[in-house]
Amino acid sequence: MTVLVALPVLLPLLAAALSLIVMRSPRMQRLIGVTVLTAIAVIAGVLLAESDKHGPVVLQLGGYAAPFGITLIADRLAALLLLTSALVTLAVLVFSIGQRITDYGRQTASTAFHPMYLMLCAGVSLAYLTGDLFNLFVAFEIMLASSYVLITRRTTAERVRASMTYVIVSLTSSLLFITMIALVYAATGTVNLAALPEKIGELDPGVQTSLGLFMVVVFGIKAALVPLHFWLPDSYPTAPAPITAVFAGLLTKVGVYALIRTQTLVFIHDESWTVLLVVAMLTMIIGVLGAIAQNDLNRMLSFLLVSHIGYMLFGLALFTVIGLAGVILYVVHHITVQAALFLTSGLITRHTGTVSLQAMSGVAKAYPLIAVLFALPALSLAGIPPFSGFVAKIALLQAGAAVGTPAAYAVTAAAVLTSLLTLFAVTKIWVGAFWGKVAEPHPDPDPTDEVTVGTGSTSKGMLVSTGGLVAVSVLIAVFAGPLADMSERAAADLLDGGAYRTAVLGEAGGE
Amino acid sequence: MTVNLTMAVVLAGLYAVGFYLLMQRSLMRVILGIVILGHGANLFLQVAGGPPGEPVFAGTALIEAMVDPLPQALALTAIVITFALTTFLLALAYRSWALLGHDEVQDDVEDRRIREAERRREGMDESDEPDAEAAEAVAGFEAPEASEEVPR
Predict the structure, then answer these.
(1) What count of other Cβ atoms lies within 10 Å of the Cβ of residue B62?
(2) Chain A neighbours among B 113-152 (CB < 8 Å)?
(3) What single-letter DSSP state applies at residue A353?
(4) Is A384 helix (H, G, I), strand (E, B) or coil?
């Protein structure tokens, strides 16, 4: 049973190597990718059921006892996010295959895409499953290194600047991550996440706070919190639609996951953290105002992404069970919805040939299916009942009101305001892109690049995968009850931390 | 643990130089900044392991005299990663130079939008086609002189 924990990391890594070997056969590459990601989804489901029933599933790599070896651990939170990520990566892969076949035919091979995509999935899985701070760094590097390749494939002059920003900012944050690990190791002598809380607790409160803040900065750059968000709206929109979708859906959320994991497990917070509340409020408001100012569909969606990271931070900053339960619901909802929105944006721009909201019009009349595929996740993002966004937002707002301090009330109010402004922003997209007369598509400005806008053709694979993601986001709302219960149990685990420590270190560690 | 003053000064120097170079306008200097910052971070991992000691081979020295091996393992991993990513960054910088013909880091898209808006407000007579300019600014790309041969 415990070996299952290693499979979501091992399978895509091996598959990536295999995918390189068979690169002459596009069909084999596609088969490998889809099979492996489906397998991960199944394994994640099993892990979720197992960890919910019998507690965290732990594997000590190489048989070294914790805290000396590397630990892989799947608790409720990790398994739940792994399952969501697997479904999203699978949908995006199918979309991407569909797009490739539509544009270049069945027989063309894209050498780097499949191996790199699988590496990315391996990195994401490892980031969720690892129980070791340095291993988390390695997971981030696997994920980011493949994302560098994916974002810089066939760069044009226009995209090289954006990807350069992305690579340099990510590298800087990685180097800060190493520095943070060095500081933590110097102070405590361990990098095992389960062994850290006890050692950290013995430190001077000032040192504790500075280490905690350092972690917020390191993971904040990856998660795009507001003073550290500037790179995201610059770089994400320039990549091809499926790449943007998986980056927007997953990479920032992995940063949020690392924040949640370290701030609940490693540092003990008994009450809400005002600094984090203020950052959450700034992230929500500045993000959504940035979105409203945009005229470019993808940039607008990127700013909305930044804005909604604020909600997750808000729930975390409260440090209550219902707050964290809200965050977990929100992360699950947001991964699917944001990826679905970027995929739909890819579909839209294929027909309009432009990302400018002023230049496009009449998509609703010409392509009603795309309009539906956009409307459902967009309404969900804005938090309109009965969609998944509403369920997640209401949980967060309740948590904010339950804490009841002035700061918590202020952020709750900001969350409601951001929700309304988000609705305004998606309405702006709707009015610009979907209403009006059907416009002639603009021709593709650069047919040689990977960003295929204005080709005017979509295939079933693309529509089905986008539809599948939208269906998942609707299912989240349908099964909101069981999911909320699950989130609450996961949140209780997180705040308590005892089950995690016992699972890794044995009975002695759980005290 | 005791702190070695020389190491602390060297680390401070590496970090300071690294961050200074990172904030420069030329891409090559930014990359050098990343490289130096990487050296600083990797050295820091080493220093975090405490003072130097005997090598970790069973039976060759007293356990108390041995050095902590874990930071060395971590630093080795980190060095490999920074090395690989530096190579990638250099390749990317070369591509950037080949496509753009210079190695200046370009302005932020939003900055350019604001500048265009400001320019339009100041003198409508200078810009004959404000819409086209705005569209270009939104697209976020001003075509610079590309070099003659573009290696793909």
Answers:
(1) 8
(2) 135, 138-141, 143-144, 146
(3) S
(4) coil
Domain co-membership, B39 together with B75: yes
Q: Residue A238: helix, strand or coil by DSSP? A: helix
Query: Which residues, 6 or more positions from A224, have their beta carbon under 8 angstroms from its beta carbon?
Result: A231, A232, A252, A255, A305, A306, A309
CB contacts, 8 Å: B34 with chain A: 168, 171-172, 175
- The rounded radius of gyration (Å) of the Cα atoms in chain B is 24
Mean pLDDT of A251-262: 93
| Matching residue, tokens 């690989």 | B84
Q: Are residues B53 and B113 in the same domain?
A: no
* Res A46: pLDDT: 95
SS3 A231: coil
CB contact at 8 A, A377 and A451: no
Tokens read off for A226: 């507001």
Q: What is the pLDDT of residues A102-133, one digit of tens each?
A: 887 777 767 789 999 999 999 999 999 999 99
Q: What is the pLDDT of residues A483-493, one digit of tens each?
A: 999 999 999 98
Tell me if B145 is assigned to some domain: no
Helix, strand, coil percent content, chain B, rounded in steps of 5: 65, 5, 30
Residues B83 and B118 in one domain: no
Residue A51 clears pLDDT 70, i.e. is over it? yes
Residues 61-100 of B with CB under 8 A from A: 68, 70-71, 74, 77-78, 81-82, 84-85, 88-89, 92-93, 95-96, 99-100
Pair B12, B57 in one domain: yes
pLDDT of A434 above 90: no
Tell me which residues of chain A have a C-beta less than 8 Å from any C-beta of chain B. 134, 137-138, 141, 145, 148-149, 152, 155-158, 160-164, 167-168, 171-172, 174-176, 178-179, 181-183, 185-186, 189, 191, 230, 234, 238, 295-296, 356
Which stretches of chain B drop beneath a pLDDT of 50?
A: 127-152
Amino acid at A475: L
Contact predicate A469/A376, CB 8 Å: no
Nearest CA in chain A to B32: A168
Taking only the tens place, the pLDDT of each residue in A221-248 is 999 998 898 889 888 888 888 999 999 9
Q: Is residue B148 a part of any domain in this protein?
A: no
Number of domains within chain B: 2
Looking at residues A453-480, what average pLDDT do you find? 86
What is the structure's pLDDT at B142?
Answer: 43
Q: How many CB atoms lie within 10 A of CB A420?
A: 12
| pLDDT-derived band at A508, boundaries 50, 70, 90 | low
pLDDT-derived band at A324, boundaries 50, 70, 90: very high
Statement to judge: residues B80 and B125 lie in one domain: no
| Per-residue pLDDT reduced to its tens digit, B136-145 | 444 444 444 4
CA A157 to each of CA A17, A42, A88, A94: distance values in angstroms, whole numbers, following the listed order: 31, 41, 30, 28
Which residues, in sequence order, are bridge partners of residue A60? A71
